[in-house]
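Hi again,

Forgot to attach this to my earlier email, sorry! This is the prediction with iron/sulfur cluster bound. I've pasted everything inline since the attachment limit keeps bouncing my files.
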Amino acid sequence: MAASDPFWRRKTLGAMTRAEWESLCDGCGRCCLHKLRDEETEALLWTHVGCRLLDGATGRCTDYANRKSRVPDCVKLTPAKVAAIDWLPPTCAYRLLAEGRDLPWWHPLVSGDPETVHQAGVSIRGRIVAERDAGALEDHVVAWPGRVPKAAKPIPPVRRGSDTEL
Ligand code: SF4
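Structure tokens for the complex follow:
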């Protein structure tokens, strides 16, 4: 590990500053889609219906600072929650780092360009249905939020000798 390595390779999730932690979010918006659980199998089912605070053009929350009071079941990510939940998409930077992977080329911290997350087909831009228009969530189950788009591959492998810990 070189001192010149970027912070996400040098630090565990738990050791990051607040600003570093926040900068890991690539703005894909996938985690802000409504999800369902199959009652029998407990399997996670994604929908393409966005939270009412999700901006379908930017992939960002429109009231990030107050999201928890506006949407009480919004989950504020922490290292412990990243380890515990099973619904972060396979492209999510928090999940990738928790798995001991590097960030991919299209992550804004790597590319230096917030547009690359959209160019790689990772974001929800232009693909979601607004909560107010959706009706029954069961009618909007889709698979893509749980998959890695072709243009976003390959996802970096788990680093050998990775000592990444939460
Ligand atoms: S899935 Fe991960 S990277 Fe994408 S918006 Fe949610 S927290 Fe950010």
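Residues 7-147 form one domain. Residues 7 and 20 are 8 Å apart (CA to CA).

That should be everything now.

G.
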